[in-house]
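Before a colleague's protein record goes any further, I have to sign it off. What it holds is a sequence and that sequence's fold in token form. My question to you is simply how this chain folds and whether the tokens agree. Thanks in advance; the entry in question is below:
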Amino acid sequence: MVVLACRNLSGVVGGVERMLTNVANNLVKRGYSVLIITWDTLDTPPVYQLDDRIIWEKVGFGDLTVKSTVIQRLRRILMLRKIINKYRVSHCLCFQLGTYNSIVTASFFKNIKVVALERNSLQRFSYTSKELLWLNYGFMLFAHKIVVQFGSYIKDYPAALRSKIIAIPNFHDLKIVDRSLKESHSKKVVYVGRFSYQKNIIFTLMTFIECCKIDELVNFEFIGKGGMKEEMIDIVRKSGFEARIQICDPRTRWYEDKEIDVLCLFSLWEGFPNVILEAFASSILCIGSVKTKGIKDLLSNGRGVLVETNSSKLLAVEVLEAINNDIEKKNTFLVNARRYSDAHRHSDIIPEWESILN
């Protein structure tokens, strides 16, 4: 039995949840017995469709938006150990380090190969607690393997861990669409993801407002949800651009909107942003921060437009310049992006996940 674990699968339209679901479904199709463990409560359905052959165990209680107490964490570890004892588990793939730390603790002396799947670059700890980073390093010493999403991330880890680390990129199962731009095309720009500090969401919104002041033909849409939504709505209302900046609920197949011309992503840190891979496959031009690892890895080599993110006013000028690039230049970006997405289908990448299990 192979276990895949993350914090939650219900109510979250995110990259971790999507990738866990994709990996689980593909492993089942290849003959593996798969068990998913999450912190969800018993009555919550997943956002993404799971294969009927997958077993889903939930160890949630209380409010997942509130930090767990020490007693709650101990209780969860006991529940995890009970589940591990119930099934003949060989490997456990943990999609978040908090989840990994709990399962490592629960599986001591059980001869289970626990794999830490770090879904963010270590750039994250430039904005969060460095004490937490060293705690995670300590737990990683017990990992069978550590999986990152780009080879460029490995050198950021301590030398003592590097022999355990392998890089496996994300993958997709979308039909690749050649939507080469012609002279008449829309100017619809989107952000897709959580409305959170990590995603630099207020800075992104202020940049879009500055764009509206300069170019009256461009429209913007935020697709997602998060704790900063009300603040965003208030800023848009005060800006006077409510008709041109829409804040919308999550859509799992956002990339099917043929009016979308550009995706912008200016996160403070990332791992492997799935929305960019989806945009690549759907011939949507991507603009992202040159400072952000993961975004830079994906958009380099002519696959997208990399910009500085020091000032929303200056960035607005760069974004509009990219949007208004000549058609031939834009189509060159899209061709390069489609080639990358074509090399990152599930059939290409799932064997790399299987190598961890064999």
The chain has twelve helices and 13 strands. The longest strand covers residues 260-265. The chain has a mean pLDDT of 92. Residues 195 and 201 are 6 Å apart (CA to CA).
